[in-house]
Design brief:
two-stranded antiparallel sheet, alpha+beta, 4 helices, disordered N terminus
Length: 220
Amino acid sequence: MTAPQPPAAGVEALYEDADLLVLCKPAGLLCVPGRGPDKQDCLSARAQQRWPGALIVHRLDQATSGLVLMARHIEAQRRLSHAFAERQVHKRYQAVVQGLLGTVGGDWSEIDLPIAADWERRPLRVIDPVQGKPSRTRWRVLAQDTAAQTTRVELEPVTGRTHQLRVHLAALGHPILGDALYADARTQALAPRLLLHAAELRFAHPAHGGACAFAAPAGF
């Protein structure tokens, strides 16, 4: 494996080879360009400055930090996109949520609540048992702060709906700290950013099929 590279325009490369890149996206940076000239700075644009032809495979919310996988060429993108679609890429996140949730060291639990777009309040999503798409999240407690009344959780999305982790935790009554979309004003104010981080990625290499595993600690 290639040694970790220094940041490229504020983006850290944990790994690179001829087929893929593993980058660590900072919170607040878009994955792809948005609408308008003020939303052109993004992870893909910064990556392409250093690795021409780099292609997005999946995305994180702008407010979420952590590991993002990119392809170096179209065939790698095709294979990695297929792996994501077939749920062959395993992702784990860490978050800090409001309130004391579960028991430290307990078993994995699962949230199974269907998610739909809230068309009147886009880009928000809602739990909708009629129109919602099946959505599943596994979670377990890593630590609790009884003084602050917060819980650090590890999350494993089984499905990949937009805002899934944020919506599911809010539906449990434990929104993520700093969440400007799904938390009340008090919970938003408890952190300067959304405390959600993509901490682990595991997948088969698109060229040779070997096991790849990467981790990046949360900065909160």
